[in-house]
Amino acid sequence: MIEFNNVNKTYENGTRALHNVNLCIEQGEFVFIVGDSGAGKTTLTKLLICEERLSGGTLKVNGYNLSKIPRRKIPFLRRTIGMVFQDFRLLPNMTAAENVSFAMHVIGEPKKLIQSRVKRFMGLVGLSDKMDSFPRELSGGEKQRVALARALVNRPSVIIADEPTGNIDPAMSYEMMKLLLHINEVEKMTIVVITHQLDLVNTFNKRVITIRDGAVVSDKIGGTYDAIK
User: Fold this and answer.
1) Global pTM?
2) Which position has the higher pLDDT, 153 or 169?
3) Strand segments (E) across the chain
């Protein structure tokens, strides 16, 4: 569960990025968060993974109170969240399988479990035949799916996809969203998609939270252009 209660974020230069944000995302939901550039989407994402700390209010994520969480517990919080970034952030000198398995190696998971998880999630994203390919050998859509497999491999309860279709073509964008929906339904993971692509939002009849000038201005099922504008 993700729960914002009167969350505020003001940066040191005085910029008020979020103010009085109240919203709750239940376990297993699929949610779009939309808004113009500068609306506060990036700040909201950074608060969720403790890249930034809130200035006021309370924020609870997967049982952790982020307004009080000590620094030593942040890595444990992040293990409950899978991040998918617009720019993929794949390690260029590692194969697709090595990129996916890297986080599991870091936390010392057994080799057999790593192999099993990598095989499963590379298959889930349709890339069983690309296990030994390097990022430079993959298309944009394939890189994004490797990034998604990497986010899934530690079996987090929440996947946050930050502009996951920003660097892939429209047809692949639609396939990526269908894949995220499938993961939501089959793996029962909470999916939070940060996006500005209105056509994709309008295609899928899911919950849409709209942020404008640092505040939630709309929270409804189904997206329309007027609601996001």
Assistant:
1) 0.90
2) 153
3) 2-10, 16-25, 30-34, 56-61, 64-65, 81-84, 158-162, 190-195, 207-212, 215-221
